[in-house]
Design brief:
Strand content: under 5%
Helix content: over 70%
Largest sheet: none
Distance between the termini: 31 Å
Number of helices: 6
Radius of gyration: 13 Å
Structural class: mainly alpha
Number of strands: 0
Order of helices and strands: HHHHHH
């Protein structure tokens, strides 16, 4: 597992909430607050979402009975850190596919990015 700082972990946890089987509108204010408080730019956050969080969490919204209380923190951090440790070329190669999937599963993400910019 790759090392990560506490700020990145907080961003992973916040972004993962967008993949829970619940009304995204209920978690958006909290997610946006964490993202605004992070040291990352909107472009950095988009890359973290596409490269690290989406590949780990998207399956939950495709499940008939998905997780709705929250992902296990240790599991989430381990998986996201592993994704962050992949070579940049591999993450970039998959980014377009992830963007299309994300736009279908979490259309609110575009509004979050717009608000952060």
């Amino acid at each position: 597992m790759a090392e990560c700082d506490g700020e990145r972990r907080a961003v992973w946890r916040a972004l993962s909430e967008l993949f829970l089987d619940l009304d995204v509108a209920d978690v958006l204010p909290g997610v946006e607050a964490v993202l605004r408080a992070s040291p990352y730019s909107a472009d950095d956050l988009e890359q973290i979402m596409l490269d690290e969080v989406y590949p780990v969490c998207h399956w939950n919204l495709r499940s008939v009975a998905g997780e709705w209380t929250g992902f296990d923190r240790d599991w989430l951090v381990e998986r996201c850190a592993d994704r962050a440790a992949l070579p940049g070329w591999r993450r970039a190669l998959l980014r377009g596919l992830h963007r299309r999937g994300l736009n279908r599963l979490v259309p609110e993400w575009a509004e979050v990015l717009k608000a952060l910019r």
